[in-house]
Amino acid sequence: MGTVGIREVAALAGVSVSTVSNVLNRPERVGAASAARVRAAIETLGYVPNLPARQLRGVRSGTIGMAVFNTAIPFFNQVIFGAETVAERAGLSVMVGNSYESVARQARHLANFEQYRVDGVLVTPVTHDLSAMHRLHQRGVPVVLLDARDDAGDFDSVWLDDVGGGRLATEHLIAIGRTRIWFVGGPLGVRQNADRLAGCREAVAAAGGATLTVREGDGVGLRVGRETGDRIAAMPAGERPDGVFAASDMEAIGLMQSLLRAGLRIPGDVAIVGYDDSDFAANTSVPLSSVRQPALAMGQSAAELLIERLANADSAVKQIAFDPELIERESSGGGSV
């Protein structure tokens, strides 16, 4: 198929070229029915407005797009830095979009990347649904999944074994004698959280004699941890958990703050293990045990895969899996690291 332009969109929608232009630039001037026909035609034809005039067909933009899950999580700041380091060496700049756990925000970032004709895209999918990434791929935009695996093998990807990480954290809590285990994290619609919980369930099931309670949060961060900590502190001592696996360091730190404020001992009353091993983990009031993710290396590897894909679009799909590592500190009875 040849290049799809505004005239083709107008013809399919049964409107004038000026109407299509108004839908794109001044939508308030177009009636709802006409606008709907234009948007349907754009989707059917795969038309992408070419915003910067310098980005003509066949000319590289020198920019890659990067849509990450949530920059409030320290892990993703390191991932971005790793990708930028590799991109700079290749003469590329990085346009970053923060999806902030929202499918709609992620979709807007991907649409913007396409409009600005980025050379390729790094993306941490918010959900298991990869249809938006497939649309980019079908339109000739290389996509590499970051912190997510592609079970179908359609995309290059870089990911951590989060099931293994969840299992590792929970096995450690059980090994130090904890039997009332809580998993704190969410939303569970996010693949990483669901996988960490799956590993946690596996460890509890294999151990025997331990119980698991799942506390799904409605977001990521200190607030979720603090609210959970307040709930635990209000429980009778014989009913509260004696071991908590938090799906991120920020949730673990918020949990720790609430428990210490209530006078509970860590790890005496409640042992805690987080996830990410962010810079904060070793510097909390009680140094936090955490599952380490090699964020910098993951960002670098993802950018390298994308640059390889730009150089050879027909090369075999590559998937790079990193193994988790448990860093034991005082929050679960280990030494400070």
Automatic annotation (TrEMBL):
Pfam families: LacI, Peripla_BP_3
Matches recorded under InterPro entries: HTH_LacI, LacI/GalR-like_sensor, Lambda_DNA-bd_dom_sf, Peripla_BP_I
GO molecular function, one term: transcription cis-regulatory region binding
Domain HTH lacI-type: from-to ranges: 4-58
Domain of life from the UniProt record: Bacteria
Keywords annotated in UniProt: DNA-binding, Transcription, Transcription regulation
Name of protein: LacI family transcriptional regulator
Source organism: Jiangella aurantiaca
